[in-house]
Amino acid sequence: MVPKFKVPGISMGLGALAARIAASVLVTRPVVKRQKCVKCASCAKACPVQAITMTESGPVIDPVKCILCFCCHEMCRYEAMDLARRMRIFQYGRKKP
């Protein structure tokens, strides 16, 4: 028997374990606040990977292309880009463009 051995996960408590699992599944992503958006396209212009396209209803963020740099959030003068915790997108066998 190993002295002072602690089993990982159990000794840290279920709350801490749940928090670690949630952190691995959830990610902070930019989200458009439609009620504040004036469709000026400053978010699309600021995006270094062109993950935002403008439509008649406003900006649309491609979650696959988005690199989570939050330039859109920083550059929107109307505070129409919010940051929200969302499910991480797992892509098995696909490469990012």
| Count, helices | 3
List segments where confidence is low: pLDDT < 50 over at least 5 consecutive residues: none
Q: Any idea what the shape is? A: elongated
Question: Percent of residues in helical segments?
Answer: 10-25%
As a whole number of angstroms, the C-alpha radius of gyration is: 19 Å
SSE series: HEHEEHE
Percent of residues in beta strands? 15-25%
Number of E-state strands: 4
Largest sheet: 2 strands, antiparallel
N/C terminus separation: 51 Å
| Arrangement of strands in the largest sheet | 1-4
Keyphrases for this structure?
single chain, 97 residues, alpha+beta, two-stranded antiparallel ribbon, 3 helices, 4 strands, elongated
Provide structural commentary.
This protein has 97 residues and is an alpha+beta fold. The chain has helices at 14-25, 42-46, 71-75, and strands spanning 26-32, 52-55, 58-61, 81-87. The protein has a two-stranded antiparallel ribbon. It has a two-stranded antiparallel ribbon with strand order 2-3. The radius of gyration is 19 Å and the shape is elongated. The model has no long low-confidence stretch (mean pLDDT 82).
Structure summarized in a few sentences:
A two-stranded antiparallel sheet has the order 1-4. The protein has a two-stranded antiparallel sheet with strand order 2-3.
How would the blueprint of this fold be written?
Blueprint: H1 14-25, E1 26-32, H2 42-46, E2 52-55, E3 58-61, H3 71-75, E4 81-87
Antiparallel strand pairs: 1-4, 2-3
